[in-house]
Specification:
The protein has 272 residues and is mainly beta. It has two domains: 29-155, Galactose-binding domain-like (Jelly Rolls, Sandwich); 170-269, no CATH class. Helices cover 5% and strands 45% of the residues. It has one helix at residues 209-222; strands spanning 2-5, 24-26, 36-38, 59-60, 67-87, 96-101, 109-115, 123-139, 147-154, 157-158, 174-182, 188-207, 228-231, 241-246, 253-254, 261-269. The strands form two sheets. Strands 1, 3, 4, 5, 6, 7, 8 and 9 form an eight-stranded mixed beta sheet that branches. Strands 2, 10, 11, 12, 13, 14, 15 and 16 form an eight-stranded antiparallel beta sheet that branches. The model is unreliable at 11-15 (pLDDT under 50).
Amino acid sequence: MSIIFSDSLVASVVDPLVTLNSPIFGYQSFVTAAGVTSGNAATGYPVTNVANISTASFWRANDTTEQYLTATINPAQIVDYVGIARHNFSTAGVAVSVETQEGLGDPWVEVISASIPANNNALIFRFEEQTAYGVRLKLAAGSAAPEISVFFAGKLLVSTQRIYVGHSPITLNRRVEVVSGMSESGNYLGRIITGSNLTTSVSLTHLEPDWYRSTFDPFVVAAQSTPFFFSWRPIQYPDETAFAWLTNDPQPSNMMPNGMMQVSLEMSGVNA
């Protein structure tokens, strides 16, 4: 799993604690079934599937030629990321780039240059904040028809506090369900993996009380029903990124006399 940064993206100096290495949550998305289109689609794999949060359904192109996957955002909204879950860009050798359009009829501008991902795990494309009427993926011709399960485009939630010691990166914290075979004489016959996912917990402390209420709590409310893209330390560990969902009900609490807050998140994520 990885984050791909725009070449022109630089850290904001609005708050010295907020940098490109601060934890990010990509839960907001303006991609809708009514607003997404593609060049073509294989039978049974319509493009509207990418606007569904289920990772069990896919859009798949009908051939291996260059494709565009376009999300129209009307009215235009502020965006700074694209999230992709459950794709085959790496194994199919598909170079992907991201383009945005400011208004209807305006030229498309490349914000993320083309590259082939190292693997098929979740991707976050992060670029400079801008108002966009459209966001599209340009998928170069590959060895197999490209496919995508989830396509998000919106504005990232960036934590004001970093995650430090004691954190278990989600991509390294694997959970598998297995059936082990044993013979009547007690010999080991092998194992069958029947399911797998990723898990982690996140502890955020010293959060400004106003920021928590105005900015973080809307994420907690949305995450009760909607999964999200997550990276705990984007610059230092860009591959430790996931498409995840909450498995607990976060209970924030005051931790300081000045009202500073703390909260813990439990989450699971999908494997490639």
